[in-house]
Amino acid sequence: MGWVLAVEDVLAEAGRTGAELDTIERDGLRAQLAGVSRAMAEPALPFFIQRDAASADPGAAGNAGGITWVEVSGDAERLRAWLDGADVPVRVTAGEPAVRAVGIGDRELR
């Protein structure tokens, strides 16, 4: 399992991290992604997504089913560097790199 962080400038994230860019399209919606292969290799790291303006963000404010926090295990310093100071509701625990739990609305999935 992996996780993703919505950003305003995916090209900047790709440049900062050295990550590859990908484009996805489905049902007329389009988005650019950066860092998918790195996130697959290191699941404690998110990949980055920038949706086209016409594509709704499923985790946007007001969406009761949106993700409210993520818990990962792995190298906290590596994650901090990858996020470059972004204020992200993520908890880091010791262990092999993995996504451990997710808060969705008021529910916790482990």
Architecture overview:
The structure is a single chain. With 110 residues, the chain is of the alpha/beta class. It has one domain (4-52, 64-109). The chain is 20% helix and 37% strand. The chain has 3 helices and 8 strands. The strands form 2 sheets. Strands 1-4-3-2 form a 4-stranded mixed beta sheet. Strands 6-5-7-8 form a 4-stranded mixed beta sheet, with no helix packed on it. The radius of gyration is 14 Å and the shape is globular. It starts with a strand and ends with a strand. The model has no long low-confidence stretch (mean pLDDT 90).
Secondary-structure topology with pairs:
Layout (H helix, E strand, L loop, with lengths): L3 E3 L3 H8 L3 E6 L2 E6 L1 H6 L5 E5 L15 E7 L2 H8 L6 E4 L4 E7 L2 E3 L1
Parallel strand pairs: 1-4, 5-6
Antiparallel strand pairs: 2-3, 3-4, 5-7, 7-8
